[in-house]
Amino acid sequence: MIVILKQGITPQEKDKVRSFLSEKGFIVKEIVGQQDTVLGAVGKVSIDPRTVELLPGVSSVVPISKPYKLASREMKKEDTIVSVGRVRIGGNRVAVIAGPCAVENYDQIMTIAESVREAGAVMLRGGAFKPRTSPYSFQGLGEEGLRLLRAAGDAFDMPITSEVVSPSDVRMMAGYVDMFQIGARNMQNFELLKEVGKTGMPVLLKRGLSATIEEWLMAAEYLMASGTDQVVLCERGIRTFEKATRNTLDCSAIPVVQKLTHLPVIGDPSHATGLRDMVSPMSLAIVASGASGVIVEVHNAPEKAFSDGPQSLYLSQFQKLVHDIQALCPVVGKSLERIPRIIPESMSGRSAGEEASRDSLVVAFQGVRGAFSELAVRRSFDDSVSVLPCHTFADTFDAVSSGKARYAVLPVENTLGGTVYDTLDLLAMHPELTIVGEQQVRVMHNLIVHPGTEMGSIRKVYSHPQGLQQCKAFLDKELPDAERVSYFDTAGAVEHLASSDDMSEAAIAGAPAAAYYGMEVLRQGIETDASNYTRFYILAREENAEVYRSQAKLDKAALSFSVSDEPGALMDILRMIAGRGVNMKKLESRPIPGKPWEYLFFVEIQLPEDKAGFDALMDEIREKAVSFRVLGLYASVIE
Ligand code: PEP
Ligand code: MN
Q1: Number of folded domains that form the chain
Q2: Any idea what the CATH number is for the domain that residue 17 is in?
Q3: Of 5, 209, 232, 485, which has the highest C-beta tally within 10 A?
Q4: What's the pTM?
Q5: 534 is known as an active-site residue
Q6: Looking at 365, 423, 534, 601, which residue is catalytic?
Q7: Which structural domain range is residue 590 located in?
Q8: 47 and 109 co-located in one domain
Q9: DSSP label at residue 365
Q10: Half-sphere exposure of 596 (CA within 13 A, CB side)
């Protein structure tokens, strides 16, 4: 049953309700939602719900109709986000997990780990204990395989997952893996589920070969009842009469499961199809079905793989797949998960005057709390950083320039609105700052209201003019009579909403703003064009650049230069870039303040592998240009 607690319940009253339920023999879990706090009570016992309803601090008691309780949506309305190391699975993220079927040797796993990480995978897979159909097939390297997988995960900064097949291995494996994998053949190995659940660690639970959705969710319930709430479900194809593929991918299970449970569900196109050519299209089908990720088998030499070679992608195929998934994400309201960076305090001492928090590193952004820029900060750094919201772009530059903040995250380009010139102009005025990274955030607009407000009672809608414009079709159709009020920014509109008692007001902004100000998302993704992305630069003073840059493979550079006023001056420089086979990604020109009709050019290029070639190109441009500056080297968004 679900025990819904009153908003003003005291900690003592809550403890009393918990003890009452535990003494009756229930397993009790507290679930803090956006609206209420509830206690989930599950167990073999049954009691009259009224005895619980009468306890002080209890609002109501609702029975759960499904046989799975802790896993059910009835128990928890919000999506569970499973954290595996710094990677998050669930909600509006799409996490790509990749690696070989089995760990074979050091070189193999290192090569694959490096490549899949570079292509955009956030977690590494690799079997060490392989449940094979034939006892004569390769059974895996056992503990040695786990050691190698751990080394590869550590070397390339990825959490790892590997299959556990025996309850007696659980304790040993817990020392190596970040997430257990329960294979399809073991989905109903209840002793194994209980033992794994007891660790409290994240678990990837494959769907059994012939398991119904309910049986699958009951297996998740076993894990949860034993002690973990970090379960990721994985659809990997089921047994049908069809022989063309290894199994039959049951894509429709994905939306069905998402309705029934708050747990994230991902898909495994490799074991579902057994055929390399089917893996990419089925990965896209999995993402299109609303899954929170895919787990894909990738091998550096599939024809020599010890197991599942025919279904393993070549590295180049995997790279293309990640790009395709990224392109698909906005259509389904998701964005590709990336590994946020940790900047250890110890690696560069606190800058003088860094002030917003004494305890953690400070990152500045422009806007109020809950802005899309704050989301870009959260994606670029781990949770321990504190944010410094700044009023203007110039303030944000000053914060990082003066050392008040270690890094600043500023928008540079939007897919619909184009270049953010303020950022380029301020960069030109701050030669002490350099670009160390980039980030990308999907701008998804939502209609946000006070909890309880319904569509029919909305009279005014606040947002940034672009927000109102981008949602015009929705407003015209759903709220034709509501007044549209321009606000200086989208999150600011939600801040205003929260400070007003007028229940007939609404705002258009991102979901983080609704969560931050305790408001409710009434309609999600109301913008007309879903391919609305903003790209951000991460800026630092030169002395703090290396720590950030060192955590990823740098593949882009940004330059600025001006040229003499003569025919072909710009062309000469562009020819130098082209002449070295360097790919140019962006070109902008901006007026130079104080020099009428003279321009500063901004160029982004793909960083060539050949470092000496790049240095020579920079020297060549420096020689030819009137002014020249390397604005920064950084890793593109897919790292
Ligand atoms: C695997 O992931 O390597 C595997 C054996 O998968 P499944 O349990 O889905 O067959
Ligand atoms: Mn396999």
Answers
A1: 4
A2: 3.30.70.1140
A3: 232
A4: 0.79
A5: yes
A6: 534
A7: 552-639
A8: no
A9: E
A10: 0
Whichever domain contains 186, its CATH number is 3.20.20.70
- Please tell me the number of the ligand nearest to residue 299's CA: 2
Query: Minimum-distance ligand to the CA of 209?
Result: 1
Ligand 1 midpoint to CA 307 (Å): 11
Cα–Cα distance for residue pair 12/18, rounded to 1 Å: 10
Task: Measure the CA–CA gap between 391 and 436, rounded to whole angstroms.
Answer: 23
Atom 8 in ligand 1: which residue has the minimum CA distance? 183
Instruction: Give residue-wise pLDDT tens across range 329-381.
Output: 878 878 888 887 776 654 444 444 444 444 579 999 999 999 999 989 988 88
**Per-residue pLDDT reduced to its tens digit, 43-86:** 888 889 899 999 999 999 988 888 999 999 998 988 999 999 98
| Residues β-bridged to residue 123 | 97
| pLDDT score for 345 | 57
Structural tokens at position 389: 């919201």
What residues contact 296, with CB distance under 8 A and at least 6 apart? 96, 97, 98, 268, 269, 270, 279, 283, 313, 318, 321
Give the integer Cα–Cα distance in Å for 472 and 457.
Answer: 19
Cβ(374)–Cβ(365) under 8 Å?
Answer: yes
Which amino acid residue places its CA nearest to atom 1 of ligand 1?
101
Is residue 154 domain-shared with residue 193, that is, in the same domain?
Answer: yes
| Ligand 1 pocket mutation pick from 123, 236, 273, 297 by most atoms within 8 angstroms of CB | 236
Write out residues with Cβ below 6 Å of ligand 1: 101, 127, 163, 183-185, 206, 236, 268, 271
d(CA 262, CA 464) in angstroms, rounded, equals 33
What are the DSSP E strand ranges found in 310-426?
335-336, 362-366, 386-390, 407-414, 418-419
Q: How many angstroms does the Cα of residue 228 sit away from the middle of ligand 2? A: 25
Q: Please check whether residues 276 and 317 belong to one and the same domain.
A: yes
